[in-house]
Specification:
With about 700 residues, the protein is α/β, with parallel strands linked by helices. Helix content is about 30%, strand content about 15%. The protein binds iron/sulfur cluster (SF4).
């Protein structure tokens, strides 16, 4: 038996795994006891990873060879890499020639490795010449990115997992880590068991497993987080709980925020949030008076039409109470996907450039152009996720290259997304699993390697870079994502850059990583002191890790100096705004979407493991039982659920953990898991038939 150290491909906790393989097949997975993210533990998803590589899965669910259909109406046929690569290159060249570079869009994924991200970014920006490259991380992280930048100066989570061992108060907001980040939550449970005086506050419209664990559950109404934070700040001001010396020495903008908070009394905030004032006051005291307060937050803050305001409102609280830059203290965004952080570092999103640079900054564009050996990078703004699909629906984006994600299930307002995919002249789908909802709209399918078959790196929530290693060769004709990109790019270069040296002279993943590393030199995330060899020898490392450093930095801003040019953090004064869509007489229930304990995203991987359905086996709409009798509803009824955009039919269950006048639906289910068949013309069945595409004006999330 061979053993190969790698990283779990599911969530942003980034647990180390040891892959067991025999005769070219994966036979088992166990936790890596030396990995500092998990010390050998794995959750239900991680510990069943090997079952997603079982022979029956490889035969029935994996994409094993390139596929092509010459016409939209023609059936998809097996093809060769040479033929599909040439077809893609020819079509890209023709569309770019006729309609310009911005008629092409790339929609990629936080599941990709850093090296894959880099290859896509270079293809889009340096060769095609468009900033139309965005990632499903837009739906996951971009409000955290912009929140950090506005408040602290750069996109860098200041805290680390070890801070759970030092925190005296843990404020969990818009997150259910008991299910979504389980191994991190085990660490919180252990910390609380060893120090029972630690206070845990959970802010969530639902009574989740995390809320059950908490000392205080603030069951706010959906979307009212900014009002809550302003009310907490008001209480801190009124009760003399501010860290005034810290505010004076290390921040700017407090007067404006104080004026805003003055108008949000605790009583008013409690009324808006639907909680008791006494609970809010208790939370304010624990947050401010604990020796060290750590916040953990995720989609409840990020995935919102006021996502950035929610992030900055929470960071404001940390700054005002001096709860930052010390062991156990700080705002700490949890990443959903395994490499959403790596995508941010590489700049594989429309609003970012490599090394935490800005595509709107001419000097930043020039720096990357020089590093990559091109004359210039495009300056036209790129389209973010929802914008990209809206542009495709209007006929402006004609080619979509989608990698490692399933937008026909996972983007909001599915009717619009599917119109967009139908209208495109060419949809390229780079995937490892067959039968996703998006596959039905693809003209070209490029079979990709997945975990256990590819080599590279990822960065987890605490800025820790871990190696991903191949234990076996990819099945069939599947290839690593960066290789797929490179091979098409090499065919396109003679057309778009005739007579110039290749930009894609990569034979190994390390060559891509080294190019990315150079883009970080001298920046806040400098990893010029790292190498594959060092990571292989010493294990995963946190950034920054500049040349000459002996180790990375566990937490940031310990010297009180922030990353803005003046060294000061900024208070951001943004008022509370209600959800973009309100309930009314015709649509009287608010819908929240949520995660299940044992499933991942659209289930293309976790959905092949039967034991992961033991916890929850079918899509169910949950409602507060008090709301059911007056509508003549009871447990087990089939109900028609309608929003302003779509309609689905589901089983109903009463659940007192869901707030009054609210309903909850897990996000994972899509048509192939509900109906057993996917494809064009099939009815919409997942949560995103109902959801709306409004986004935060700052983060576009
Ligand atoms: Fe994988 Fe996340 Fe579970 Fe760790 S907590 S084993 S990274 S899914």
């Amino acid at each position: 038996m061979l053993e190969t150290k790698s990283t779990c491909p599911y969530c942003g906790v980034g647990c180390g795994i040891i892959i067991e393989s025999e005769a070219g097949a994966i036979t088992g997975v166990r936790g890596d006891p030396e990995h500092p993210a998990n010390f050998g533990r794995l959750c239900s998803k991680g510990s069943t990873l090997h079952l997603t590589a079982a022979p029956v899965v490889l035969q029935t669910r994996r994409l094993l060879q390139p596929m092509l259909r010459a016409e939209r109406t023609a059936p998809m046929k097996a093809s060769s890499w040479d033929a599909v690569n040439q077809h893609v290159a020819d079509k890209l060249a023709a569309v770019i020639g006729e309609h310009g570079p911005d008629s092409v869009g790339f929609y990629i994924s936080g599941q990709l490795l850093t090296e894959d991200y880099h290859a896509f970014n270079k293809l889009a920006r340096a060769l095609v010449g468009t900033n139309n490259i965005d990632s499903n991380s837009r739906l996951c992280m971009s409000s955290a990115v912009v929140g950090y930048k506005q408040s602290l100066g750069v996109d860098a989570p200041p805290a680390c997992y070890e801070d759970l061992d030092h925190a005296d108060c843990v404020f969990i907001s818009g997150a259910n880590p008991a299910w979504a980040h389980p191994i991190l939550f085990r660490r919180l449970e252990a910390a609380k068991a060893s120090r029972p005086a630690m206070k845990v506050i959970v802010v969530d419209p639902r009574r989740t497993e995390s809320a059950e664990f908490a000392d205080l559950h603030l069951q706010i109404l959906p979307g009212t987080d900014v009002a809550l934070c302003l009310g907490l700040l008001h209480a801190c001001i009124w009760d003399g709980l501010l860290a005034q010396p810290f505010i004076d020495a290390h921040t700017t903008g407090f007067a404006e925020l104080k004026a805003l908070a003055r108008d949000m009394t605790p009583a008013q905030a409690a009324r808006i949030c639907g909680i008791k004032e006494v609970e809010l006051l208790q939370a304010a005291r624990w947050f401010a008076q604990s020796p060290a307060t750590l916040s953990l937050y995720c989609q409840g803050l990020n995935q919102s039409s006021s996502g950035t305001a929610k992030n900055t409102a929470l960071i404001n609280l940390h700054l005002a109470t001096g709860q930052i830059g010390r062991p156990g203290a700080g705002p700490f965004s949890l990443t959903g996907q395994p490499n959403a952080m790596g995508g941010r570092e590489v700049g594989g999103m429309a609003t970012l450039l490599p090394g935490h640079r800005d595509p709107n900054d001419a000097a930043h564009r020039a720096e990357i152009a020089a590093l990559w050996g091109v004359d210039a990078l495009p300056s036209r703004p790129g389209k973010t996720a929802v914008e990209l699909f809206e542009a495709a629906a209007r006929g402006e984006v004609k080619v979509l290259w989608i990698a490692c994600t399933n937008p026909a299930q996972s983007l909001p307002d599915q009717a619009l997304v599917r119109r967009a995919l139908e209208r495109c002249e060419l949809v390229i789908l780079q995937e490892c699993f067959a039968g996703t909802a998006t596959a039905a709209y693809a003209d070209v399918i490029l079979p990709a390697a997945t975990w256990g078959e590819k080599d590279g790196s990822v960065t987890n929530s605490e800025r820790r870079i871990s190696r991903v290693r191949a234990a076996i060769a990819p099945p069939g004709e599947a290839r690593s994502d960066w290789q797929i990109v490179r091979d098409v790019a090499r065919l396109l270069e003679p057309v778009l850059r005739p007579g110039r040296a290749s930009l894609f002279d990569f034979e190994r993943s390390e060559a891509l990583w080294l190019e990315h590393r150079e883009a970080t030199r001298g920046r806040d995330l400098d990893i010029s002191g790292l190498s594959y060899a060092l990571l292989d020898r010493d294990g995963p490392q946190q950034w920054p890790f500049p040349e000459g450093a002996l180790k990375g930095r566990a937490r940031l801003y310990e010297d009180g100096r922030f990353a803005a040019p003046d060294g000061r953090a900024r208070f951001i004064a943004k008022p509370y705004q209600a959800c973009a869509e309100q309930v009314d007489a015709r649509f009287p229930l608010g819908l929240t979407t949520s995660r299940m304990r044992d499933q991942w995203h659209g289930m293309s991987r976790s959905g092949v493991v039967s034991r992961l359905f033991g916890h929850s086996g079918a899509p169910v709409l949950r409602m507060n039982p008090q709301d059911m009798p007056r509508r003549g509803l009871k447990d087990g009824d089939l109900v028609r659920v309608r929003s302003r955009r779509g309609e689905i039919t589901l089983l109903l269950l009463g659940d007192a953990d869901v707030g009054a006048a609210q309903a909850d639906l897990a996000m994972h289910w899509g048509q192939e898991f509900v109906s057993g068949r996917g494809g064009q013309g099939q009815p919409l069945l997942g949560a995103n038939a109902l959801t709306q595409p409004a986004f935060c004006p700052d983060s576009k999330q």
